[in-house]
């Protein structure tokens, strides 16, 4: 397997996983485990790959450099998808020193138990490879400090999970920017929120993250997008989320969507049983107003709705306008249970929930249309 040379003396030597196990959100497009080799007077490898992909990283390293000549293996992220192949690599790279934070050293020793040479670094420390001086930045991510690596000589930030995307692709750079941006937003919402700021490094021409595509052509754009996302900026968009058993709630959802669309605003409709929760969360993030509907479910609400609200609270999504609706066939409406879970998140309920029994009549569908129209106008005028 071939390494990918994206900067003088710097190579991508990672692995592509087209069908990863469904252990976390947003993996339907696959992913990559990115590892980077820098060849200078000293040779450094930045992160490794998941166990099971060792053959790929070894083959790519050996394509451009002898594995045994590696002087440093820098572990920015000790999780197993970035350090899983370490035990085998260290058998071959016998002279390599592992460059880690104090916490990463503890985790790697616990995960792998290797009797290896370590160099513990902290924020602001440097490592000279030759003409390159690497600068290490510790970045607080969900209470955990990850290690970012910056090469001023190349103006590259090896950014860890920042700017990552779950995309399986052999197109290593950012040509199809719209697809990449959508996946970057999904990763930001599901894995990184809440973030207060980006690392303070001014000269960056390339971003080399842990997962997905390397940013070389659209670096400034994705940094600006991140700055907007950190501020919580959303589109003037209405999102309708629902599920339905006998199409009653679905008819309501479509009528609400039609009413919102009639105001000229962007509208999207999602059946939450047919989409990954991570996908839905990213759509909620980019929308100003949300309408959520559910059908009858015993004496409560479907587990998928509970899971969705739990994740909204968990990642800190806030300051959205929300409307609730239902078409139910049981004796009791699920709206009470729906309002209970909705009360736990920082969304503003804009009006009394809309309730229909059995199947919406023509007059009730008109009420749904009118609700959508009010949502659209509210969003159009950017009212909070």
UniProtKB/TrEMBL annotation:
Keywords: Oxidoreductase. It comes from Candidatus Methanofastidiosum methylothiophilum. Residues 238-384 form the Flavodoxin-like domain. SMART domains: Lactamase_B. Transmembrane segments: none annotated. PROSITE patterns: FLAVODOXIN_LIKE. It is an enzyme of class 1 (oxidoreductase). The gene is fprA_1. This is Type A flavoprotein FprA. It holds the Pfam family ODP. InterPro entries: Flavodoxin/NO_synth (IPR008254), Flavoprotein-like_sf (IPR029039), Metallo-B-lactamas (IPR001279), ODP_dom (IPR045761), RibonucZ/Hydroxyglut_hydro (IPR036866), Rubredoxin-O_OxRdtase (IPR016440). One of its GO terms (molecular function) is FMN binding. Its EC number is 1.-.-.-. SUPFAM superfamilies: Flavoproteins, Metallo-hydrolase/oxidoreductase.
